[in-house]
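Researcher: Here's a chain I'd like modeled. Treat it as a single chain, no partners, no ligands.
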Amino acid sequence: MPPSAITGTLCGAAARAQSDKLAASIGDLKSAPGATPSSPDLSAINERLSQIERASMAQSAAIAQEGNKLVDDAPLRRVVVASLLNISVRQGEPFAAALAAAKSLADNADALKPLEGFAASGVPSAATLSRELLTLVPKLSPPSPDNATTGSGLIDRLQAGASKLVRIERTDAVGNDRGAIVARVTAAALRNDSAEARRELNTLAPGDRSAAQGWLDKADARDAALAASRQFADDAMAALAKPRQ
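Model: Modeled as a single isolated chain. Structure tokens:
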């Protein structure tokens, strides 16, 4: 039973107890020696009982209203919704319903816009982004010099084919040429370090990284979504901690 209902019951019981006490007193007066057989004037007593009943009902209503305020506490609800949203975002789960609830409670719903693009599918993890990037690496690599042997003699073509079989790509390449950068991008993607891969990609000339531009935009959007979710959760907790007016 809610506290408001319990309190209301106690108030009603107190009113009934006082009423019973008054009735008992009236009975004692009637049975007392020398009491007159005429009916006593109970108007004052009835009025007092009515006052007690009205006060009890008013107190119960006030307690119930206060209880509703505690249940319908916007800062607390905002913290709960923000926590659920942040968990879904971090785990890569779809969060359309949680985002809608967060917007309804947010002081600034526009701050949650970076999350909209991932609401239906979920925010991709670093490992997912890395796998996607690995499929783009062949498009980023500089043209192979072996292509120059096309149309050469049989021996040249056989040598070119043999070199492809034994060639080993270094993943610890140094330097700022396109091949070295792509090698470091590949190494970072293999480690699921999408942040490092993005930093390396951005050192390429715009034309050389054009094949991965969509991936870069997606990585940036992911960072913005994670930041928006975290900020909303932090703001909700800070608002809850503020003293109430």
